[in-house]
Amino acid sequence: MRRALLIYNPAAGQWWRRPRPEHLRDTLARHGWDVTVLTTEGQDHATELVRAHLSPEIEAVWTSGGDGTLSQAATALVDSGVPIGIIPVGTVNVIAREIGLPSGAPKAIAAIANSKARRSFRAWRASGRGVLLGIGAGFDARAMGRVSMGAKHALGLLAIGARGVWEWARYDFPALHVTGEDDHGRPIDTEATQVLATIPRHFAGSHVLVPDADPADPWIDVVLFDGRSHARLAAFWLGVEAPGTLQLRVPGVRVLRARRLSIVARDGRAEPTHVNGDVVDATPFHLEPWGTVTLLAPER
Description:
The protein is an alpha+beta fold. The chain is built from nine helices and 17 strands. It has helices spanning 21-30, 45-53, 67-75, 94-98, 105-112, 139-146, 149-155, 157-169, 230-241; strands at 2-8, 33-39, 60-65, 84-88, 118-126, 129-131, 134-137, 176-182, 187-192, 194-198, 202-203, 207-208, 220-225, 253-265, 272-275, 278-282, 285-296. The longest helix is centred in the middle third of the chain and has 13 residues, at 157-169. It starts with a strand and ends with a strand.
């Protein structure tokens, strides 16, 4: 039996879809994994648990949760070579979709438990946290940060969408100063009223935000919106929801690649910023490259 840790988030996703930890332990055992179950109790606890229990005998770390739980565990595993197995039970599970993992805990485990395939993700760092999915400042961070956890756990994306409509109607288009360095080493110095930076192609589920984004490359893809029109902001997010990449053709939208990034609100406010889908930071915000995280992946 191969030894592993199982980081279990009891608050991830909707309660009726959430597997019990003993069921996951038994399923992994049938695939040859002897796991120690560790239950998270709050934000960033997954990072603490992995750091406290990782030992030379551990051959993998499994996470049962969403992209936030996965990224928290990954924070403790950057450049370690210890792979992460994803059991996608969160609200969105973007990274699981990115690597082609089937939905549902039993199918996901079966797809990667004995797979030799691996996917490398370039991890970034913001305020000591590992960024494996992406970040956002402005509209989407406000919507995600202000939706109640009870509604999110009960309704999932519907709750976020409903809150998004409310935030869209009252959005004041904050002046965000964006600086850094692009993929050619040139300085970035520009303005935006919404900033999204993504590591994978996928965003908010099965949608594609930047079609040529590559999680293994040394830069992060940044989508800037500098408009001040509610109609154009709505067009952007409707484009995200639609097939294709209509959002990138909305006037006021630009895409660039960055090797490092900073976001500051011009008026000095602490504008909410999400990291991996969790609103745990605010401007001034700084994002820098870090190292590599390895994921167990389905055989191609």
